[in-house]
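Appendix B, record 7
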Amino acid sequence: MVTIQTRPDGRDRLDPSRVPRLRRAALPIGIGIVASLVDGIGAGIPSYWGDEAASVLSGTRPLPSLLTELGAVDAVHGLYYMLLHVWMWAFGTGEWATRALSVIAIGALAAGVVTLGRMWFGRSTAVVAGLLVAVIPRASSLAIETRGYAITAATAVWLVVLFTHLARQGAARRRWILFGVLAGVCSWFFVYLLLVPLTLCAVLLLVPRWAEAPHRNPREVRGDMMATIGSAFLGALPILALAALQRGQVSFLAHRGYLSPKGVLITPWFSHSAVAVVLWALIVMAVFITLATTRQRAQGTFALAWLTMPALALIAVDVFVAPTYNPRYLAVSLGAVALLAARGITGIVGAAARRLPRLAPIAAALIAVIVLGVTVPQYLHQRTPYAKDGGADFRVVADAVAQRAQPGDAVLFGAGPRPSRTARLAYRLYPDDFSGLRDPQLVTSFTDRAGLWDELAPVPAVASMLPEHTVWLLETKGAQSAGADLSALRRSGYALATELHLHRTIVYEFTRGAHHE
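Structure tokens (predicted):
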């Protein structure tokens, strides 16, 4: 098909048949750019936190070392780590650089939501849903995080777009099989992404007429869905096998208390109860509107299943099999949250317009004020220096050491409450700030281990062998090891010179021969 035509003056012009497609693409692309720009603001302000440290350290490994790591831990994040490895090689390891991947992914999520919303509910709902992506707290938080969840959320939406397209087209079974394999391979970004296409297939298995393909009878549709499910599992088989072998890595979830009313209804997408009340009210409104409308009943059911079934599956596995549930995993349903909340908004505004047309803009403005009133405070808090993990302060710690320490000093690290919170991560995340300082505790670098972190000797084991005049000790507040570490340095002839309390870390300066504390 010719898409470029030559004008009489010799210059080329676009085939007019392409213009409508370009115009249709402009809306999701434009809203995607807006979402990226909005959520990219302040991306470099919060310090890295422990999960991001796992990403950054994994991404900085040489590829053979990374493959060794993935054979032991974090295989479910392996594809993201490999992508991040290439990204950091090109753009660096600072917060702005590494989080840019997630900022872009949130734009792709918004664009996908607009595309899908237009297919399911119409243009108005699509636009509102795309704009909501920028302010839904989980989305605006994942946009500025060096983890793969934003990419997972975007991938989930675009898989639903493709699923809807194939269903409406009455695609041949071989195309459904290819879709299943694609969905399975996409789950290599994060294994629970697989729950989204499986949920959609389950809906069509139960109600095959919703495929909207007149030339495919219910038996054929059910056969297509079974083939899709089988090929999806086949495509996901490698990551499923690795996840099963590494299931002990998430045993800590049994002690986190995530499976609670708050952990199910608020934390996954809304962060705060006020946001949850407003957006759940809109979602419930959307469910009533779509299920009561024959024309949108199928789409409403798909969206509701997409919202609820991944959560119910994780809860069931957590209760009956092994600790599994983590609210962050439900990022796969962010697209459904945006679409249903948007449908609730357009439903309310539409009802107001039918009652009295001039009420519509008033209703729209009031809803916008309420939604922004509860979400903007969360957005702003997410972009403060200690926003991550309840107060991660690794960058501030590194800055404090860089300002005070001198080349030739030694730096020591106490054991934190868990590896992802130990002050040692400041050393690895911001190595330039520790330039010229000796690292006497290092036994095995993380790059030479299958695990995520460095292997360190405890402070008491090295204190008596330190030749340096000045030693810096970094302790996480409340760490049980701090008392033993301080005593070991004192027994080795050091005295406390200064003590700096930061947000979650204490920086001690010890000098040999000093007589003041």
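Remarks on this record: The first helix runs from residue 19 to 40. The radius of gyration is 26 Å.
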